[in-house]
Amino acid sequence: MRAVVIDGTGGPDVLRLAEVARPSRVNAECLVRVVAAGVNPIDAKSRAGGGAAAAFAEFPVILGNDFSGVVVETSHEASPIQPGDDVYGMTMVPRFGGTYAEYIAVPAMFLAKKPRSLTHVEAAAVPLAALTAWGLVVDVAKVHDRQRILIHAGAGGVGHFAIQFARFFGAVVVTTGSARNADWLRSLGAAQVIDYTSTRFEHEVHGLDVVIDLVGNSHDETGVRSLGVLRPGGLLITVPSAALWPTMVADAASLGVRATGYRVPADGGTLSVISRLLESGEVRVFVDHVFDLAEVSQAHAAIESGHTRGKLVLRVAGE
User: Which of 21, 234, 243, 275 has its CA 20 to 30 A from that of 121?
Assistant: First the structure.
């Protein structure tokens, strides 16, 4: 099969198209023919030597966590997922093979039926970002009616889902973003958009219940500054590596607030719930750009620019 591999970590130029062996399904796994694969910041970080790179046992490595495609083989005859079904989901590199490939073998519990209202390209943009956003908003923040929440980097893949989930559950959402994205962010449900290029968010808001930081403290001390806009007992959730801010929990406690990191699980059951919101139109996915599989280096350069809106997707095969 065709796949994009890396033979070592480095810049986007280390990504190359290759012919590799098709994976074999074992135990309760399904074999899926990949139609499209999402591109996420964790892919670029791992390629560059951060992210999951410390767990790379040997090269070459196939990156990619998101996918949408068609089931080729399933684990047993009575499985609710059968050959020919359109499915989507996320896997976890490097414990499992990556999705920048024509086929993947993936545990059935990582899968959900693809929403009929979405193309494979649109569906491939959903899993990792939407599951992360759901975990942040629903599982950790437990966002509810009238809660006040600030979401940094609202225009990104995770951010644009987090805004919609928080709005769906009745929260008052503030987000940071550029002026060019302001109207779009409001259309997703943000009550207030703070232009981070011209305004310090701590000058605009205070007494918040929750801050979801998708930027990270290593950039302009976004995390430290976020602690100061929380109410007593409020919660900061940071997604970029907590290792870059080892005193996070202690810093929060010293100010009378709470802080935690977050890591997303590959959960097909939760993805099925998200599917219903996508089917109903309550939540929508935005695909900024679609690249052919051979254009993966350009996709990584784009994701590393930090200026994409929504998600980037690789087209692996025809719909």
Answer: 21
Please report which confidence band the pLDDT of residue 271 belongs to, taking 50, 70 and 90 as the band edges: very high
* Three-state helix/strand/coil letters over 143-187: CCCCCEEEECCCCCHHHHHHHHHHHHCCCEEEEEECHHHHHHHHH
Run of H or E residues at 157: helix 157-168
Query: CA-based Rg of the chain, rounded to a whole angstrom?
Result: 19
Please check whether the two domains, 2-126+285-315 and 129-261, share a CATH topology.
no
Q: Band of the pLDDT at 307, cuts 50, 70, 90?
A: confident
Task: State the residue for tokens 């209202």.
Answer: 117
Q: Is 287 helix (H, G, I), strand (E, B) or coil?
A: strand
Q: What is the mean pLDDT of residues 217-233?
A: 95
Half-sphere CA count of 7, side-chain side, radius 13 A: 6
Tokens representing 75 are: 């684990």
Q: Distance of CA 45 to CAs 48, 301, 310, Å?
A: 5, 11, 18
Name the residue ranges covered by the structural domains of the chain: 2-126+285-315, 129-261
Task: Kindly report the pTM of this predicted structure.
Answer: 0.97
Strand partners, 238: 213, 261
Length of the chain, in residues: 319
As its CATH architecture, domain 129-261 has 3-Layer(aba) Sandwich (3.40)
CB 137 within 8 A of CB 163: no
